[in-house]
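Complex record, two chains
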Amino acid sequence: MTTPTLRSVQFRREREASWKELEALLARAESAGLARLGSDELVRLVELYRATGSSLSVARAISLDRNVLEYLERLTQRAYIVVYAPRRRFLGAIANFFARDFPRRIRGLRVHLAITIAVLVASVWMGERVVHSDPDRFYSFVSEEMAQGRGPHSEPAELLEILERKTDPSDDLSLFASVLLSHNAQIGLLSFGLGFLGGIPALVLVLTNGLGLGAFVAIHERTGIATEFWAWVLPHGVTELFAMCLCAAAGLSVGQTLLFPGAFRRWESLAHAGRNAATIVVGAVALFVVAAALEGFFRQLVTSLPVRFSVASLSLVLLVLYITRVGRMDDSASAEGGEGDR
Amino acid sequence: MRQIFARTDALRAGYLVTPEQVLLRFDLASIGARASALLIDASILVVAALGIVFLFSYLVENHGGWFAPIEVLLLFALRNFYFIYMELRFSGQTLGKRLVGIRVVARDGGALGAGLVFARNLTRELEFIIPMALAVSGTAVSGVATWVVELAAVLWIVVMLGIPLRTRSHARLGDLIAGTIVVQVPRPVLLSDLTDREVARPATSAGSAGSTESEGSAESTASAAPTGTASSDASLHSDGPVFTREQLDVYGIHELQVLEDVLRRPIGDVDYRLLDRLARTIQRKIGWNSAERYHSREFLTAFYAAQRGRLEKELAFGRRRERKRVDDETHS
């Protein structure tokens, strides 16, 4: 031999067996799933993953054999993907989301939420005042489709008829589904998406919905059945309006980050806020489903005012408890980033 | 020569640092691969949706309206949760991605969490599905002319399609929001070391056997041709070319690894003319004037080994010479 064996060749000879072992273990994990590996194999997998990662670092420092470098790079990547695969399956992820993640994120957005709720209340009040003084303004706040034939000149009997209407259950289901899909969830997604335009459109959306609601309140007041109207709206309205405010708050936070990125680069901040907002909107869509179920079934089945109001207050209490109490234990553990981000 | 060295068109890379502080350089999935994966997934979705529609049109007709809303809910779930379910279940791969050989990883190097998967896929709704619905029927927005809505929706889709072309990691909006990248599935292949004698031998003899007709190395075939037994080969090699330090100081790591690429081509794919040309260029460049004549492949393999040894030793002393010396560039 004219040249002594290279250090990199020596290095490779010493480690190659463990790389091959990792390869074999990965092949099994990928085809059969991590669950099929025994506990000692799992331990070994992680061990070998770390060892190969360090092999890669060493190889980068001493070896110029491109094939070895690429091999180690890819082997480490492959192991990384297996080791850091999503730990939660679909249903587990959903359960964890509602038990911990969602209420925690809502608490994180409490300021934005307070703002949107304030805008909502103000706009309902405004809508009510304006239509109260000039009933014909009703039509500037409420679209034809929303009005369903109701207007400032409707007779009390007509209005009451809608409030106490009972329908065929299968129609309710259709109503439920169509309300859910065509309207509410879309509003949620829309207001989140509009957040990227600076958060203002999200607020405008809350505003228009609030004005519309206020206008309805006004026309029912005129005929003296405001209480009946509230009893009609609130059982599902509490949840629905809350979900809408939540979406708007999420949009608002994205818009805020877009304008004021803070300590990080704009795209990074935006990605972070966007992730957070998207998570919240997903939860809000679930709330919309609950609201739509209440609207579709409960409202058609029960017309008694006390029952309607108690359901409304119950849903309010549950909501408040949910966002203030559920998943509190982990709040301090992962206030920012970490597990909470994933 | 320069053409050969310029051949290393590196794929676009996505870098991430694992929690173990190892920097990984993933090869990004190409836009074409992502488009085909999406096409496959979209076809699956369409077929599934059609199946549901047909099944339920039968059920509704025979068993009443109760099935209609269930159908709507099923379609809703399909549209919103197909990607999410798949990417969670198969660690970052939908069926389409699996067929194409790409997958999703977290850009920050952490685990691909459920939150990331939800975020990157729910954005699809915003990117394409809602605007697509608006483009088809622009009636959803009141107070604005239909054609304005449709135009805006089409523009929006065009912008969304443009994002992956403009971003460094071919990210769509959902990737940017979730902080994910889509990469090629890594397929590690460990080849034998070119400088490791016992392993490298067969390649060398096969190379010389196939090149007897190539001119320029015709004289060397007598000494380099395999004589049938491994032992005689080894003895031949032991007095192979020897290089001085000056000769090894000409080229850098980049050239070394291009040479490695050439030498590693599979046997059926070896271009002997290229080897000859390469050998002669290197010999001229380093001022090689040995009386001995070697077969091109043998010369190149020996040069590769010596050059790598030299550069690796330099590396150990903290000197990393990336490319050949610049002043040589002028008279090459």
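Note: Chain A has two domains: 7-83, 91-341.
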